[in-house]
């Protein structure tokens, strides 16, 4: 509050400058934030589409390799020569040599399926025999491999190819190049008795080309097993690392089907894309460095500096323009301040003012001319209005309504709002044309609605539009007959009684056909009233309304009870008015009438 008082006490120049400064800074910050945010969204959308395609290409490469491995293992398991070599017992050297030769020739034929990849194939038999195409992949003995956890896991899953990571650190104490081993148990199909194991080994450097072509700075790819261990990655230091948190996000990403989730890897904020590889039982994960990618898309530093420069230059220009403009306005205000003491003859001098101040001064001087002329004409008009009082009473319209409406028109004219003043006069004219006649006569619904709209418009001009009125009329009821001024008294009561406490709200007018009756409803969400005050009230009797806070002059003298009596006299006891209301919730008026088709020409 203290700062608001300080602001209100400042000059126009200071106010304009401060408002401009705050507005420019706010708009600049919002624009900058929105630009960056939109860039991020474009980035995410673009990468979501692009990376989905890249993941599919990487997946296709890996599936091709798995297909070659699967073909090789199937051929090995189906070969009787290899099975005989791995299962036969001790024999003479000649027979062993023949078995070894035949098995070697068969393996050369089978290994041609993997000729496109630099791999090593090794098989171990239950009889202790072994064979390998490249002994350098496995530095240990065949017996060590047979007892290795890699073989143990393979035996536990005899019907599938098991992919596992192998590091040899037994000699140097440091990890050598990782090897990805695909192993498969060999068994008799009739008895499921395992007679050997086949291993297809590929070095990580030979495995990376399956996906490395799709990586770049800040765009990393890794393969992760179901324990969270990184099996392969273009980032060498990640291989062998276990990250359960990242695994949980990858699994959640697969379950939700959403792309582009945020993830954290080694303390960096990344965008996560993933694809599950059922053949490998691995997750193919693509991690994008968000800051690096956005930095390539939007230069935040340059954008910020440019925005600050534009704001600074704009403030300098606004400062001098505002200072020059307010100097002329201050002089104009000083001259206008003499109106209360000197009256409408105090014309302002605009000879030394700026163009804007000259336009305001000309408008002010013109307004004084109009006011002086209007005052003269108003004196004559008031005399004529007094002579018309008797005629107004005979038209069953409260003359004060006309006075107040004309006063509103006068105010509009004084304010220079001639167009609205003309609209108000037209509404009043139409309203009088539709109401000045026998109130017992009937008119089409369309004419009654026109009367209501003109009445509501005049009230909005007089009291403002805090009370809104909405119309919901069935198209087929417009030509049915209703007694004149049948709805207007309820609109009048709603305007002047329903919003004493709330001050604002809405009134809804609904007209429809229901159960062979014409139903007219007036519903407001105003203060409401207690209908239990008189439990013996009959439907349609006039209910005591709360007193209005201001002494408003109503349009007509037709009350709620009069409306109900008119309807019953004209159409019988089956028709009339029903009122329901609850304090704080509003009031609903329901008027039931017979369906009488108008025979008037409404064209």
Question: How would you briefly describe this protein structure?
Answer:
The protein has 603 residues and is α+β, with helices and mostly antiparallel strands. The protein contains 18 helices and 17 strands. Residues 171-175, 385-396 and 534-555 have low confidence and may be disordered.
Task: Describe, in plain words, how this protein is organized in 3D.
The protein is an alpha+beta fold. The protein contains 18 helices and 17 strands. It has helices at residues 2-8, 12-78, 80-87, 93-111, 142-146, 149-156, 204-207, 244-256, 290-297, 300-336, 339-342, 355-387, 389-394, 399-414, 418-435, 445-463, 488-497, 560-571; strands spanning 119-125, 130-132, 162-166, 179-187, 194-203, 219-224, 230-233, 261-265, 268-277, 282-289, 442-444, 467-473, 481-483, 505-514, 517-524, 576-582, 586-594. It has a five-stranded antiparallel sheet with strand order 2-1-5-4-3, with helices on both faces. Strands 7-6-10-9-8 form a five-stranded antiparallel sheet. Strands 12-14-15-17-16 form a five-stranded mixed sheet. Strand 8 and strand 9 form a beta hairpin. The longest helix has 67 residues, at 12-78. It is elongated. Residues 171-175, 385-396 and 534-555 have low confidence and may be disordered.
Q: What's the total count of β strands?
A: 17
Q: What is the CA-CA span between the terminal residues?
A: 62 Å
Beta-strand content bin: 15-25%
The shape is: elongated
* Helix-and-strand structural type: alpha+beta
The value of Rg in angstroms is 46 Å
Helix content, binned percent: 40-55%
């Amino acid at each position: 509050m203290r700062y608001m008082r300080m602001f209100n006490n400042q000059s126009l120049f200071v106010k304009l400058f401060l408002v401009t400064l705050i507005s420019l800074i706010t708009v600049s910050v919002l624009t900058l934030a929105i630009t960056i945010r939109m860039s991020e969204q474009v980035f995410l959308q673009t990468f979501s589409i692009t990376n989905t395609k890249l993941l599919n290409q990487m997946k296709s490469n890996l599936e091709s390799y798995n297909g070659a491995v699967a073909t090789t293992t199937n051929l090995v398991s189906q070969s009787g020569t290899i099975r005989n070599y791995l299962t036969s017992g001790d024999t003479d050297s000649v027979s062993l040599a023949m078995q070894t030769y035949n098995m070697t020739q068969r393996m050369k034929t089978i290994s041609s399926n993997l000729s496109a990849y630099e791999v090593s194939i090794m098989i171990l038999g239950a009889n202790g025999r072994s064979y390998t195409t490249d002994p350098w992949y496995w530095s240990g003995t065949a017996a060590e491999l047979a007892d290795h956890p890699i073989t143990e896991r393979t035996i536990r899953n005899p019907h599938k190819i098991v992919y596992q990571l192998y590091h040899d650190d037994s000699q140097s104490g440091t990890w050598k190049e990782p090897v990805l081993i695909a192993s498969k148990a060999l068994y008799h199909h009739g008895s499921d008795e395992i007679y050997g194991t086949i291993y297809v080994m590929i070095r990580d450097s030979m495995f990376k080309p399956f996906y490395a072509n799709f990586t770049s700075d800040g765009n990393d790819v890794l393969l992760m097993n179901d324990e969270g261990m990184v099996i392969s990655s273009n980032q060498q230091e990640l291989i062998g690392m276990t990250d359960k948190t990242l695994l949980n996000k990858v699994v959640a990403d697969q379950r939700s089907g959403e792309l582009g989730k945020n993830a954290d890897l080694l303390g960096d904020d990344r965008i996560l894309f993933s694809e599950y590889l059922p053949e490998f039982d691995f997750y193919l994960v693509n991690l994008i460095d968000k800051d690096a990618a956005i930095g390539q898309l939007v230069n935040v530093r340059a954008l910020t500096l440019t925005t600050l420069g534009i704001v600074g230059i704009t403030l300098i220009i606004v400062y001098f323009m505002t200072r020059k403009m307010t100097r002329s306005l201050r002089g104009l205000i000083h001259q206008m301040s003499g109106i209360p003491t000197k009256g409408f003859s105090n014309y302002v001098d605009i000879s030394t003012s700026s163009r804007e101040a000259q336009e305001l001064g000309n408008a002010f001087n013109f307004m004084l001319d109009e006011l002086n002329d209007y005052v003269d004409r108003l004196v004559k008009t008031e005399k004529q209005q007094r002579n018309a009082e008797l005629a107004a009473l005979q038209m069953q319209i409260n003359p004060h309504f006309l006075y107040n409406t004309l006063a509103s028109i006068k105010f509009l004219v004084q304010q220079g709002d001639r167009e609205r003043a003309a609209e108000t006069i037209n509404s009043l004219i139409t309203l009088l044309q539709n109401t000045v006649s026998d109130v017992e006569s009937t008119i089409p619904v369309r004419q009654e609605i026109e009367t209501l709209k003109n009445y509501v418009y005049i009230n909005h001009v007089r009291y403002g539009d805090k009370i809104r009125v909405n119309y919901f009329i069935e198209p087929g009821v417009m030509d049915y007959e209703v007694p004149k001024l049948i709805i207007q008294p309820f609109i009048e009561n709603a305007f002047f009684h329903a919003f004493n406490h709330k001050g604002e709200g809405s009134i809804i007018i609904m007209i429809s056909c229901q159960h062979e009756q014409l139903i007219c409803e007036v519903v407001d969400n105003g203060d409401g009233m207690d209908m239990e005050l008189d439990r013996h009230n009959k439907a349609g009797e006039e209910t005591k309304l709360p007193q209005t806070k201001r002494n408003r002059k109503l349009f007509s003298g037709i009350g709620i009870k009069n409306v109900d009596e008119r309807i019953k006299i004209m159409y019988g006891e089956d028709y009339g008015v029903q009122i329901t209301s609850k304090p704080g919730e509003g009031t609903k008026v329901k008027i039931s009438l017979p369906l009488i088709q108008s025979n008037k020409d409404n064209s």
